[in-house]
Amino acid sequence: MLLAVCGAALDIGYRRLRGAVRSVQKYPALYIADLGSAGIALAVALLLRYGFTELSARPETASVLLWSGAQYLAICAFIFPLSGLYSRNWKYGSISDLLIILRAVLLTSLLLISLLFFSTRLIDMPRTVVPMQSLLLIAFLAAARLSFRAEEITQTRPGFKNGRSKGAGDDHRVPLLLVGAGDAAELYLRALARDPNATHVPVACLDKNADQLGMSLRGVPIAGRIEDFEQVVAELQQLDKRPRHVVFTEAPANFGETASDELLRSAERLGIAVSRLSQMTELRRAKGDNPYELRSIELTDLLERPQAALDREAIARLVRGRRVLITGAGGSIGSELTSQVAACEPAEIVLVDNTEYNLYAIDMTLNETFPEVSRWSYLCSVRRSQRVEEIFERHRPELVFHAAALKHVPMVQLNPREGVLTNVIGTMNVANAAKKFGTLAMVQVSTDKVVNSTSVMGATKRLAELYCQALDLHGLETGKGPRFMTVRFGNVLGSSGSLIPLFERQLARGGPLTVTDPCMTRFFMTIREAVELTLQASAYGFEKQLGQGEIFVLDMGEPVKIIDIARRMIRLAGFTPDKEIKIKIIGCRPGEKLYEELFDETDKRITSPVPGVLGAVPEPIPLPTLRHAFARLQRHAERGNDAAVVAVMRELLPRYEHEAGNMKPSAVKKRAWVPPKKSSKAGVSQRRPAYHKSARGGLPLPDN
Fold it and tell me: Rounded to two decimals, what is the model's pTM?
């Protein structure tokens, strides 16, 4: 064992020494300059200690300098490479890299003192020389490395060139006014300064923090707050630097929706274009994209909240090297989910969708952006259990994301049997196949429509939640089987058939924009954020075995009025709401509620350790009861008996309030909304749900 330890230590030392030699070969001139700096620092320190007169009167000092200098240069020649002084590109050095210089100087100084102590007992070397020499050497080494960034000296003032001020009229570049003076703005300014072909030049910054006023960011003055936009533009115009472009360096919602809206209206009135930077921290970004690309402000930017902290390593660990199957892969959520999963290097992706074009589109997207990822595409309806099992048996997926569903409330309300066959029976088929063929985890995408359901769509998705919960609890009791996790969230902006595409079509026709009710509110989230939080919740749930028998509920912030969204869309299109473009109130549609909620009356709310995610525990229904009821649902749906279908759903969901699809909009009941109660950690139950005997059935039995 001793020989093995010594051998390992020698091997590590050899590799470290070889790496140091290679690093010196990359920077030979810097290495020689550093050794010269060490000798000069020692000589200057002696000169400062004695002075010219006393030094000339002490001829023995020359021999001390030669002897100590030779020892010190030998020490530096060995220690400098091992300290990592040449193992990094100093063109991109930062303040934190100064610690490497401090470490190298400290080590060499300590070794010099040790050698001189054992050889001369420090008789001829004054004690003050070593500290002075160390300080001088630190300055010399830092100066040598700062020379790698000497070109930035001419880049500190992007608005000046060749020593004279250039106004907006003299420069071919577009003057920019940046909104935000944080880290993203600093990175953007640095990128602009290094780009000789930059087409934009920043002239000023606005920030939400009043303490920043009067300061500058990489030479660009912070001229005011966001509320001072028009005043700052007027002042810049007097200096012949009127901005032609405003750039949000962060999501506009981070500066406050009111302030962002007002700035957009002012910019529109002044004829100034508005854009925002693409975010560098997005989980998925197409290859070759410019991380500093400017893009137009969209409604999703105004509604987007500050991003919840994402544990990207946990997400990567969940997906990397595993076989992943995604149902509904060509849909709005499914396609974003597919792209983000592909970015995490899975072993293969199995795409399942019932719509040919959607499947073709996502397959082509993966082929263009992630060609190295193995993929398989299947046209398949999740209603067909035999076909689903055939795909599972062929690929044996380790992770399953179930996003296939009928989701449009009015359509499912008119066709309840179809909603049952896809949302209930389809989920059961996928979950059963996952259990049968050894899947590690299945994640079901759910919706806030399940809460206190008044629609067939919400009721069917609620039954799907309960089935996955029952399977998850069954696995907890038996100690075997996959994890079954459900992630619930509200509306996503930009999905097919959703609000934004409808408003865009109506705007293209010149209006009016149709809103069902002035008081109608919804929870909104961008597709990207919803998918990222879904992956994070799944990663935590699987890796740390969290949320067994629970529903992961994404924190979607405060609900937003639909009529406010309509007005913002009109303003972003360059029109005046209620004047140039009208808003028409058309009344609620069958199955719709005025207010959506994230927690059902019967849900037990709990705390969740996952950032951006809440927890809910529905009252469970035993697995045998669900299977027996689902068999009846499938039989009635296939026979076309809508009344019997609704009757069975009401047996399972006593609080479900069914509203017939042929009701007139004016007759739709407006369900009152009660704001959810805020719970403290102390008052939230942390117990895992357990099955209870009830009128709906006995205790769950093992699978056959």
Answer: 0.59
